[in-house]
Amino acid sequence: MVHQRHKDAGRRPAQLGEGQDPQTRQWIRIYREYEDSCKRSGLVDFAELLLRAFELLRDNATLRAHYQSRFRQVLVDEFQDTNAIQYHWLKLFAGGHNNLFVVGDDDQSIYGWRGALVDNILKFEKDHPGTKVIRLEQNYRSTGNILKAANAVIAHNEGRLGKELWTDGEDGKRIELYTAFNEIDEARFVLDRIQSWEAAGHKRAEVAILYRSNAQSRVFEEQLVQAGTPYRVYGGLRLLRARRNQGRACLSETGGEPPR
């Protein structure tokens, strides 16, 4: 939203003027009214917490000097996910000590829609002369083929710090790609692979289905239940349960009784 974007950049409505066109003026008016409503209700959102923390440190020299002397070494993790106001706050917080230790990966910057700026990590060396960059390129999780594919894809990104992931392990199996027609086709393909794995003498306990959001589990669960394949959901709620009734699998939402 517009107020979020401006707060992330440290801008209050009074700093925006009236705007050059009707649409901009309307957005600024909405931002101003939103702030007024929050003040009347005694409410703050997350962006407001960040902005107030920055303004407090910026405008109160005594407080700023206190924290700069108290914390001389500052460590920041997931630095690629910081936004503009967090970056400016860190510069104030670190003061003249210049003892900032940041950990991040510019190739993993995916929260731009939340205001995160990958530029923060890209310009860090320029803003902090004498910075030493340590690249952690050895990978202990993935096989060689997976890392080669990842390196080939990410190499097309512009404005990278640059790194080459590698492993001293095996290359492993070649990567296979299947383009499903829709989510049902995808779930059926996954189920076919599981059944082939089981038919080859392997255990179902060694199989896991990974999906991005909990909402995607439903179609997988439907296919598993209809095939009579037992499963367990980790890190979320099981959406479906089944009961055999005269040779048919009856599905119901968890919490309700299946149809008789």
Provide a descriptive summary of the structure in words.
- The protein is mainly alpha-helical and 260 residues long.
- The protein has 10 helices and 4 strands.
- The protein is extended, with a radius of gyration of 26 Å.
- The C terminus is likely disordered.
Residue stretches low in confidence (pLDDT < 50, at least 5 long) are: 242-252, 255-260
Number of helices: 10
Helix-and-strand structural type: mainly alpha
Ends distance: 48 Å
Mean pLDDT: 86
Number of strands: 4
Helical content stands at 40-55%
Order of helices and strands: HHHHEHEHHHHHEE
Strand line-up of the largest beta sheet: 1-2
Envelope shape:
extended
Strand content: 5-15%
Rg measurement, Å: 26 Å
Report the major sheet: 2 strands, parallel
Draw up the topology in text:
Elements: H1 2-8, H2 22-41, H3 46-59, H4 61-70, E1 74-76, H5 84-94, E2 100-102, H6 119-122, H7 124-127, H8 144-154, H9 183-199, H10 217-226, E3 240-245, E4 248-253
Parallel strand pairs: 1-2
Antiparallel strand pairs: 3-4
